[in-house]
Amino acid sequence: MEGPVINDEESCAKKILTTLARRAYRRPVADADVEPLLRFYSKGRSEGTFEQGIQAALGRLLVSPQFLFRLERDPANLGPGGLFRISDLELASRLSFFIWSSIPDDQLLDVAARGRLKDPKILEEQVRRMLADSRATALVVNFGGQWLFLRNMRAVDPDANAFPDFDENLRDAFRRETELFLESQMREDRPIAELLTANYTFANERLARFYGIRNVYGPHFRRVQTDPRRAGLLGHGSILTVTSYATRTSPVLRGKYLLDNILGAPPPPPPPNVPPLPETSAREHPEVSMRELMQAHRQNAVCATCHQRMDPLGFALENFDAIGKWRTTEGHAPIDASGVLPDGTRFGSPDEFRKALMAHRDEFVRTFTEKLLTYALGRAVAYYDMPALRTIVREAAPGDYRWSSLVLGIVNSRPFQMRAAQGRDDEPVSSVAPPQ
What we know:
Layout: H1 9-25, H2 31-46, H3 50-62, H4 65-68, E1 70-72, E2 83-85, H5 88-99, H6 106-113, H7 120-132, H8 137-147, H9 168-187, E3 200-203, H10 205-211, E4 222-225, H11 237-242, H12 251-261, H13 290-297, H14 301-315, E5 329-330, E6 333-334, E7 339-340, E8 346-347, H15 350-358, H16 361-377, H17 386-396, H18 403-411, H19 414-417, E9 418-420, E10 429-431
Antiparallel strand pairs: 1-10, 2-9, 3-4, 5-6, 7-8
Helix pairs in contact: 1-2, 1-3, 2-3, 5-6, 7-18, 8-9, 12-14, 16-17, 16-18, 17-18
């Protein structure tokens, strides 16, 4: 690559660094922002080529707090605790890190710099544009990793003797299946409830063979119809594996997962000094079923209250072993997948369980929205956010709780667009992007 003509080098460097600083700092920049970068450029240029000068300036830009942190300053005339609406440029950053997990693009920055992002119509146009962009894949990958514990797939280590089918290819396929499924739901703007009922998934040959799906060949993933027993997310190997132990399934882990992530009714933490269930498997003790082991565990009166809520939900998925393979027996005994929801609704199979969950669709939608709002804000949802959460869900109802309606509801909400003053106006509050 040839550098610019010597006489034009400094003006060219200033133009390059001004453009980079605008994007990196996520706002229009002044000479005071660019001058420190030009000093680093000049030093690098004096020791080498034009490109080395730009490299030195870029190194300085990448360690700037203005790039590393999202700085939101309190108004000068507002005391601690006072509520205020963040600026359009700050809103642009919140929006881009929420949907893209990255910095705003030039179009979003231009709109924010002109002070037009606060216009509800223009804000909606930008949100829909960003959701349609390929960069929105980051939303489902990172949010799915946080909400569904997909990140834990990296750490799971099923026992090789008990589950010889599991390998690194299957680990990667489990994670990719769920990511592609979530993305398809978002791209098609499907109702959120379909996450639990959709009759399709994505599979390559390795995963299709594991699931028993025919006529799928090669390493690339494609959309396929699923067995009704695997409808929706709860039939995905990723979720079934991260909610199991290395040697066996865990109705407790799966029941807690369902209460927390699907029904939004997490149980309290376990009391201290309670012995864990023995790490056993059907292969080692074929005469003892998991249900029988759990019944013995519930003899402890301190444990019984929570286990009566968790275990029946976990048993609904007991037809899936610890890596998500379908089974009808455990050892020598047939699987009993019957149970009861906390409200008393009974079910006898995974299919009946999904139908029972759909009778509680509102609870699932509220839970999903709370998890998505948590991701968007980069903090836990607190009691004072509950009115906004209820408003988001209520206003999304006419649209059948589709992805876009919930995302727009979050972006238009008070928690997303407002902030409480933290201290003196010379003490900006810094935050980072949503968890990656």
